[in-house]
């Protein structure tokens, strides 16, 4: 069921992707640009952003470097895009940080960095984006979370809870903003082959390429879906596990992860 308006025409739309230097973000920028979208790309790595814009062409692409943990840098990027394009229609919060961690391996410095990027960073961005969209009475906000946010999983001691928080956040945003004319999406990928997942030392079922993830995101946005999740063979299994009782769930996690 579509909870947001369907996107029937991409050409001419202005999309800001935060977290677009590599992986899914860069793949999504390429895909949307090919569909006629004006794409603004943000991340900390200015050199990678410049290379991506050089590849796409500066007529419909621009780089706006920022650090999502620094709200002033987000405000500066927002102002730069708004000045160039008189605003934007959709922002995709793709930024993320990940480190494998188990309960006996708590590293507070690493943990706080994940919280700063995956949770506080999104709040920083929303504090900038929402007022602009509220003033325009239109706009779309897409938060990229993860299936790791569905339920507790081994090696996701901090990453999983930050992603669970984003799912809850998106639901709250939808309740608050839908009647204000804004669209809200939550994107929950499974395993995608990116620099972030490259550090995993365990088998990743249904691993897909960033380009496939980008196609799934675009398809979900076009369909007006609230939750965009993929690959379906994997995510539907995890969704079923969300409804298991604790004894059954813990037993299933032990069996399938072997951890």
Describe it for me?
- The structure is a single chain.
- By secondary structure, this protein is of the alpha/beta class.
- It has a single domain, classed as Rossmann fold, CATH 3.40.50.720.
- The chain is built from eight helices and seven strands.
- Strands 3-2-1-4-5-6-7 form a seven-stranded parallel sheet, sandwiched between helices.
- Helix 6 links the parallel strand 6 and strand 7.
- Helix 1 packs across helix 6, helix 3 packs parallel to helix 4 and helix 4 packs parallel to helix 5.
- The protein is globular and about 55 Å long.
- 36% of the residues are buried.
- The model has no long low-confidence stretch (mean pLDDT 95).
Order of helices and strands: EHEHEHEHEHEHEHH
Number of strands: 7
CATH secondary-structure class: Alpha Beta
Average pLDDT number:
95
Write the layout of secondary structure elements.
Layout: E1 14-18, H1 23-34, E2 38-42, H2 46-56, E3 61-63, H3 71-85, E4 90-93, H4 108-136, E5 139-144, H5 159-177, E6 182-189, H6 210-223, E7 227-230, H7 232-241, H8 246-257
Parallel strand pairs: 1-2, 1-4, 2-3, 4-5, 5-6, 6-7
